[in-house]
Amino acid sequence: MTKKRRQERIAISRFTLPLTVLYGVVVALLAGPFQHGLWVQTVTLFVATEMMVILCNRHSLIRVYSRMVPIVYLFLSAMLCFRSTTVANTVVGLCFIAFYMFFFEAYQDRKAAGFVFYAFVMIGIASVFFVQILYLVPVLWVIMITYILAFSLRTFVASILGLLFPYWFVIGYDAYTNQLPDLLSHFLKLTDIGNVCHYQYTEHQAVGFVFIGLIGLTGIIHFLRNSYQDKIKTRMLYGCFVTMQVATMIFIILQPQHYPFLIHILIISTAALLGHFLALTHTWLTNVAFHVLIALVLLLTAYNLWIPSLIF
C-alpha cells in the first residue's frame, strides 16, 4: 500500500477545515477588529467560507472528499487581511459567491429562469456597491452560453430583470429622499475609464495580485491537463472559473483602480482552481509545492498585517 504524502493527508482530512477556521479567527483578531471596527469584514469572511463549502459540496467540485476549495478561499482572504478591506468590498465578494450558487443550479436547463434571475440579482446587488461589475455581465452571458448551457430568450430576459431588480428599491428610496441625481452619477461612473499608466499600485496590492495570479495560473494548467478525469459537469463548471479567472485578471490590469473590489472576485475562482490542484495531485514535487505555498501564504499574511504599505 502506497504511503500517503502529507499534502494528501491534509487535503482529505476532516480536521483541516476546522483548524483553518481557527487560523482565520486568529488572523482576524490580529488584524484588530476591536481597534479598527472590522466586525462586518470578519463576519462576512466566515459566512463566505461557509458558502464556499456549500458550493463545493452541492456541485461536487472535487471528485474526492476534500474541503480544499473553501480552505484555500479562507487562507487567501485572510492573507489579504482586513485593514484595507471595506464593507463594500466584502459585500461584492459575498454576492459573487451567491451568484455562482444560483448560476450553477441552471446547468443544462434553458428553462431555469428562476435560478438565472436570482443569480443576476446578486450581480445587481453587487453593482449597487461597485457599478463597474456590470462590465463583467457580457462575460457571464458568454459563460451561460458555453459552459452552463442554459442560454435562451427566457433566461436572457431573466438575467436582465435580475440586474434591474435591486434598482427598483434603490430608485424608490432615492425618489423618497430626493437623491435621484446621485443614482445618475452612480451609472455615469461606467464612463469613467481610468488610465492604467497613471495608477500607482501599493506594494501590498502588487504582491497580492502577482501571487494570486501565479497560483491561479498553476490551477488552470493543472485543470487543463487533468480535466479528462472529471465528470463533464465538473469540467464545465471549472470552465466558468477559468474564464472568470482570466477575465478578472485582465480587468485588474486594464482598470487597476478597481483592485480592492476585483481581488475579492478573483480569489473565488483562484480558490476553486488551486483547491482542485492541491486535492488531486500526489507527487513529491506537488508535495514540496504544497509546503512552499503554505509558507508563502503565512509570510504574506504577516507582511500584510505588520509591514506598512508603500506606493510603487
Automatic annotation (TrEMBL):
This protein's record includes keyword Glycoprotein: no
Superkingdom per UniProt: Bacteria
Keywords: Membrane, Transmembrane, Transmembrane helix
UniProt key word Membrane: yes
Transmembrane regions: 12-32, 38-58, 70-103, 115-137, 144-169, 206-224, 236-255, 261-281, 288-307
UniProt-recorded name of the protein: Glycosyltransferase RgtA/B/C/D-like domain-containing protein
Annotated organism of origin: Segatella maculosa OT 289
